[in-house]
Design goal:
Layout: H1 16-49, H2 74-77, E1 79-86, E2 99-105, E3 111-118, E4 124-133, E5 144-148, E6 161-169, E7 175-179, E8 186-190, H3 197-209, E9 218-219
Antiparallel strand pairs: 1-2, 1-8, 1-9, 2-3, 3-4, 4-5, 5-6, 6-7, 7-8
Length: 222
């Protein structure tokens, strides 16, 4: 069979109405898209201009970074503290009774940390570590520390250091609220073996305003 070339398809007729409708649709979409973009930008500027919620209006500071006490005199902070409450954590699961922490400043500027807790059988468990102050720009003596319980020769590894932030401290250095910036860990410490219930609740109420889940707090030795 001889090759028969295909017949050419005649060009479509130009229809003014069709093209006018298409151009109108594109123009409408462009206008709507532009309006939505302006609204989004306006909303973004408004959100940035509004201050973050804080304790003054009763909203937790979940979006705001935690602030530490400054300045903290580590020599006054040194000594024996008794744990009153804590958020559950894996390294204190075995503790069923009283828990204490003793801090001793050393000549090299670091602080010896000696934690002790009572176990279910009445014996005690003790861990000895080291703490160091972390400088904070514009806040000399800020209560931001790091604690290590790993062997000293591993001290160069950042992963062996845990955050220890002093979030609240009374003027007499009798009650302290300590936590971590990710809000996963929290402790209430006092010089007295047992803190008054009202005073303890005040510490927990303040921790709640900072965004800590105090409903999960365990009371120590009560």
């Amino acid at each position: 069979m001889p090759y028969r070339p295909p017949r050419a398809t005649p060009p479509a007729a130009f229809d003014d109405r069709v093209h006018s409708a298409s151009i109108g649709t594109l123009a409408t979409a462009f206008c709507v898209g532009g309006a939505l973009t302006l609204l989004a930008l306006s909303g973004s500027r408004t959100a940035r201009a509004q201050p973050l919620a804080g304790p003054a209006d009763g909203a937790p500071l979940m979006r705001a970074p935690l602030q530490v006490v400054a300045p903290v005199d580590l020599k006054r902070y040194a000594g024996l503290w008794h744990e009153q409450a804590r958020l559950p954590n894996r390294f204190q699961k075995q503790c069923t009774g009283a828990v204490s922490a003793e801090y001793t400043p050393l000549e090299d500027g670091s602080v010896e940390v000696r934690n002790r807790c009572i176990l279910a059988d009445g014996s005690f468990d003790e861990s000895v570590g080291s703490a160091r102050a972390v400088p904070v720009a514009g806040q000399p003596g800020a209560g931001r520390l790091e604690v290590r319980f790993a062997p000293e020769w591993l001290g160069w590894l950042p992963l062996v250091w845990g955050d220890y932030w002093i979030l609240k401290l009374d003027r007499d250095y009798q009650v302290a609220l300590v936590g971590t910036p990710n809000r996963r860990y929290l402790w209430v410490l006092s010089r007295a073996p047992r803190l008054d219930d009202a005073a303890l609740q005040a510490e927990l109420d303040y921790a709640r305003t900072l965004g800590f889940d105090v409903d999960k707090v365990e009371l120590t030795g009560r």
